[in-house]
Amino acid sequence: MAGSTDRSPIYFGAVRLSPRSVVWTLGLLLATVLVSSCGVGGLSPIFPNPVSPNGQNIYNTYIGISIPAIIIFIGVEIALLWVVVKYRRSTQPATYVPPQIHGNTPLEVAWTIAPLVVVLAIALYSFVELQRDFQPVSASNYTVVVSGHQFGWNYTYPEGFTVHQEGSLQTEVTPFVVPTHRLVRLEFQGTDVIHSWWVPAVSGKTDAVPGYDNFSWLKIDEVGKWRGECAELCGVGHSTMQIIVQSMDEPQYNAWVQQQMAAAKSSP
Amino acid sequence: MAATQVLPRPKAYDDTFWKPISLWLTTTDHKLIGIMYMVTGILSFVIGGIFALIIRLQLSQPNLKVVDPETYNQMISAHGVTMIFFFVTIFLTGIANYMVPIMIGARDMAFPRVNLLGFWLVPVSIILYYSGFFSGGALDAGWTGYAPLTEKAYQAKSLGVDFWAMSIIVWAISGIMASTNFLTTIVALRAPGMKLTRLPLFVWAQISTSILLLVVGAPLAAAMILVEFDRQLGTQFFTTQGRPVLYQHLFWFFGHPEVYIMILPGFGMISEVIPVFARKPIFGYMSMVAALFGIVFLSMTVWAHHMFTVGMNTYVEGFFMLMTMLIAVPTGIKFFNWIATAWWGSIDFEIPMKFAFGFLATFLIGGITGVYLASVPVDTQLHQSYYVVAHLHYVLFGGSVFTIFAGIYYWFPKITGRMLNKTLGEWNFWTLFVGFNGTFLIMHTLGLEGMPRRIATYSNEAWAATNLIITVSSFLIAFSVAIFLINVVRSWNHGEVAGDDPWRANTLEWATASPPPPYNFERVPPVRSFMPLRDLRESGELEEELTPEPAPA
After folding, report:
1. Residue A197: inside a domain, yes or no?
2. Closest approach of chain A CAs to the CA of B240, in angstroms?
């Protein structure tokens, strides 16, 4: 260790610092800041539980994978710590000669098979979730065409009008309004470069690729407003391509649709 | 031992870094070429790091305007290209160029002049890329350069994309040359007794890396040529009217194996370092080799996991998900074998060993988050968010950079004849470990909160505190790298003299002088296992082979 060598220590004034002591202090400070800022937000180990069922499935899959992941993480880190603490030469008798082991076939087979079983299980579970995610969309008769451009989104409703959500960071963008309790099919189109439509509180992201139809869906049962952003670098204004999804209950939504259609008619 | 038989030890040109420039320009010596590769790599690391600090300053608070979005997009692209193409890959080629011939008991690479040409194409590639900055703006579509954003229609005013494409083509040619050279060298120039089953694991890692680069380098160059056709000849391969997704397939067919090109040599170095400092042979040598080739094979069948949101058939997505997750198996084998090697060992936590354990502790996180990202439903939520940025840095920083530092601290005495300072090494390791985790651990949560990557700024106040902590930590990394650079420069000329074998290591490079003479060995020691030097030490033959260096004046 640093203290036991005859190298000249690093002096800061009169205080002798070892790198380890400094780093532990810094690390503890950092940990304190982390723990104290948990309440502030922005430091959750998991994304917010999404409001759309497909988003909830993703959330559940995330939790499901976390169970083996956390067990493996803790197990391996403990094994590493055990090695670090237990087998240091500095704490061993000078006569200790490590056993010269070259391998152990049953052990090696075991730690090949065990991870294989775990990842196959995770893959199967994920694949089942993936298939489930794509079932409901065929039952939808309400399709909104979402078209990405530099830098904003256009939402063309089946009623014929289009909502323009032009990108901006300074002001709140025009919300994309959806009815509650209704499965809305989203059809994605790109008109220039690739964009990606992502509202984490609703569901995962879908790319809007030029010349290529892509789709997703959402079904929101509560009234509210959620924020998202374009997730595929699309040029200078990429960060301004904000998204707001707003859900309205049926009467309110119908009124909003009437208002939009009237506005579309009146504009030349 | 009769004193009359001891020949005077030839010097390796000179002990200092400073040699006549004509020698540097024309040398075909694999060691000097290796040093030039490594110095190029480290310089690129510093340049890429400066880009990273600018990015972090810009993101430290919401709505900042340290640089404008045009510049910001060039910065993120340059950071990625510099770190991936000009730092990690180049540095690892350098360290392999230096070590592989010595480790197999060869005098030089199989094609020394190809080696020379291959190296000098690297500065050409780097200069080409940075020329973009003087042509109205460098590449600004991210290091992946997704079409159609790179097409003429959206990038008319600058030649940055053209310079990037040319640069990558030259880089790929250089990489293909180096890979061919490595494979030929390892197949043809092994010392007597150095059977394939006795190759050091670092050499095995270099074989697998070279195979990967040979296979995927050409498709990368092809993709870049097609981009150039689109831009300059008016073809429609990847344009808005063409097939932009085809570009992603071609790019990631290179791009994912590139991750393994950057990490397998690191795996190899860890497989050298842990046995030496734990005083135990590597656990499961054959399964380590098999795992390397498992990774090589699987890594070429996973590329579309970068494209789960473009809208593929779900069975195709399922295939790529499965193959991606299967990589956890060979990687797990390597992990368990490393732990088993250290288990019951007598571990001396010298700086290389600290970096090796730092690598194990952090790379694990990158591996586990990789399984989340491989799961298609979860990936649609995490893809292109800061979660991915955190994941890839755990793999490439916790993986490649920590292993590179382990390799540097381990082999610096051999390359220069002098030890790196240990106190500065401790500072280097601990500040890097804390700075790295402080930067990237909480970055996962930003992604989960919905912050996309590659945004020039953001207005969401909820992300402000986390981003500030990340920026502060990133400067701790910069501090650590500064300590490292000081250590290298100081120790190169003033470090403690190392001797031939300061670590009591196992492999042939330690059986010659430090630094080795131009022809590497006066006489290649006999090779009877994959730990030839240890065999000599234990059988008492070492005195014959290793003559003590005259005491330094």
Report:
1. yes
2. 6
Q: What is the pLDDT of residue B536?
A: 87
Q: Please tell me the pTM assigned to this model.
A: 0.91
- Where do we find the tokens 């959330």? A59
Residues 6+ apart with CB under 8 A from B513: B9, B10, B12, B417, B500, B549
Per-residue model confidence (pLDDT) at position B43? 96
Q: If DSSP codes are grouped into helix, strand and coil, which group holds residue B157?
A: coil
Q: Tokens representing B43?
A: 């310089």
Task: Name the superfamily (CATH) of residues B24-545.
Answer: Cytochrome c oxidase-like, subunit I domain (1.20.210.10)
Chain A interface includes B138 (CB < 8 A) = no
Spell out which residues of chain B touch residue A202, defining contact as CB-CB under 8 Å.
none
Q: CA-CA distance, A199 to A179, in Å (whole number)? A: 16
Instruction: Give the gap in angstroms from C-alpha B88 to the nearest C-alpha of chain A.
Output: 24
Burial (CB count <10 Å: 0-12, 13-18, 19+), residue A255: exposed
So what's the pLDDT on residue A2? 40
Q: Residue B366 above 70 pLDDT?
A: yes
A29 and A58 together in one domain: no
**Chain B contacts of A10, Cβ < 8 Å?**
423, 427
Look at B473 and A103 and tell me if their CB atoms are within 8 Å: no
Q: Is A102 in Cβ contact with B347 (below 8 Å)? A: no
Could you tell me the CATH number of the domain that includes residue A193?
Answer: 2.60.40.420
Q: DSSP letter at B192?
A: T
* A170 in the same domain as A76: no
Judge: A87–B278 Cβ closer than 8 Å, yes or no: yes
Per-residue pLDDT band at B514 (split at 50, 70, 90): confident
The Cα–Cα gap between B489 and B495 comes to 9
**Helices B201-228 and B285-299, axial angle in degrees (round to 10):** 10
Q: What is the pLDDT of residue A27?
A: 67
Q: State whether A103 and B283 contact (CB < 8 Å).
A: yes
Q: Do A5 and B445 touch (CB under 8 A)?
A: no
Residue with tokens 């990690």: B88
Assess contact for B188 and B149: CB atoms under 8 A: no
In a 13 Å sphere around the CA of B394, the CA atoms on its Cβ side amount to: 24
Q: Which of residues 332-391 of B touch A (CB under 8 A)?
A: 332-333, 335-337, 339-340, 342-349, 357, 360-361, 364-365, 368, 371-372, 374-381, 383-385
Is the bond preceding A136 in cis, omega lying within 30 degrees of 0? Answer: no
| ipTM higher than threshold 0.85 | yes
Sheet holding A184-190, edge to edge: A162-166, A152-156, A143-149, A184-190, A214-218
Domain ranges for chain B: 24-545
The residue-averaged pLDDT of A215-231 equals: 92
Interface test with A, best of B277, B381, B432 (most A CBs within 10 A): B381
Mean pLDDT on A166-172: 87
**How far A184 CA sits from the closest chain B CA (Å)?**
18
Q: How far is B55 from chain A (nearest CA, A)?
A: 14
HSE (side-chain half, CA atoms, 13 Å) at A188 = 24
Mutate to test the interface with B, among A102, A197, A206, A230 (most CBs of B within 10 A): A102
Contacts B244 to A, Cβ<8 Å: 193-194, 209-212
Task: Say if A207 falls within a structural domain.
Answer: yes
Give residue A82's domain range: 47-91+103-134
Q: Closest Cα to residue B221, out of B125, B78, B77?
A: B125
